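seq as requested:
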Amino acid sequence: MITKTIEVTNEEGLHTRPANSFVKMVREFESEIRLARGDIEVPGKSLLKIMKLGIVKGDEVRLVCDGPDEEDALAKLTSLLQPKEASS
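struct tokens:
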């Protein structure tokens, strides 16, 4: 299991469209993926629960990946939440 705390730099945070992209990407991996903001942790495959976290640009979130492709999952999901053009 690996965990990483990151600052969301995606302009839209995790509103409907980017949250949907996040969920679609999570479903590509075998690993169990969870997303947390503060004390609340939700399954990465649940669009509704992710949207209820109310993640906006600048929020710190914690990604938890556990499984055979956890490192790849963590890298790709981090890139989604921190696009290169926003992190410069």
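The two ends are 29 Å apart (CA to CA).
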